[in-house]
Design goal:
Number of domains: 1
Strand order of the largest sheet: 2-1-4-3-5
Number of strands: 5
Helix content: 25-40%
Radius of gyration: 17 Å
Largest sheet: 5 strands, parallel
Strand content: 15-25%
């Protein structure tokens, strides 16, 4: 079982990082995309069960994860892939160019707190084209309080990029995996009322009713 940043003795599933009671591996579905997806994840974020960067690496086919250590940061050659233009997704970037071919693009997502992402941007920001997406509406990442308006989870940024490229199926499948991740995280914390409120407007209700019913079953007392 994986280490927990909250309590090291708390067992967690090695794959979905949830406690065994709320393991969501039965709902895993692969997300296929012609876009090459890489995640630069801060060393502190790597151990947080709420990380959506690790969720991306778990569900997006051929995606890669790179752990960022301030003491020994990665270099461009260890991340950038030949034959693709590297985009670094960040709000302080330029608008995504119209008509880009996802088969010729590699996106690098920065996964960490706002300050941690800033540290990573100082290193990786010159590796390629900085791209910003006009993400609108409130974040569905109810596991953390965003530091301000317009702040979204790493997975939501990727959802926005999928939408910009017109990759509808990939967007739909990743959204379901993201919503499941958030719902299970809320239930793991014992926040049932908040989880029910989240679920009321979630596509999970129609997409995965059997899994939700199974998760909601009371465990028999031993």
């Amino acid at each position: 079982m994986a280490r927990s940043v909250v309590l090291e003795t708390t067992p967690r599933c090695e794959k979905c990082r949830c406690t065994p009671r709320w393991c969501i591996c039965a709902g895993w579905r692969p997300v296929d995309t012609p876009l090459q997806v890489d995640v630069l994840i801060h060393k502190r974020e790597y151990w947080r069960p709420t990380s959506t960067g690790r969720l991306i690496n778990r569900v997006v086919t051929a995606s890669r994860g790179h752990v960022f250590w301030q003491e020994k940061p990665p270099v461009r050659d260890s991340v950038a892939m030949p034959g693709r233009e590297l985009w670094i997704l960040h709000p302080r970037g330029e608008a995504a160019p119209a008509g880009a071919d996802p088969e010729k693009v590699q996106v690098l997502l920065l996964d960490g707190s706002w300050s941690e992402a800033g540290s990573m941007l100082e290193v990786a920001g010159q590796w390629g084209r900085r791209v910003s997406l006009p993400l609108t509406g409130p974040s569905r990442y109810w596991l953390r309080n965003a530091p301000g308006a317009g702040k979204h989870a790493t997975a939501e940024a990727l959802l926005g990029l999928f939408a910009a490229f017109g990759l509808g199926e990939a967007e739909t499948q990743l959204r379901l995996q993201f919503e499941l991740h958030v719902y299970a995280g809320l239930r793991t914390r014992g926040a049932k009322a908040l989880a029910d409120e989240f679920l009321a407007t979630s596509p999970l209700r129609t997409a995965m009713p059997e899994l939700l019913a199974k998760l909601g079953e009371r465990r028999r007392a031993r």
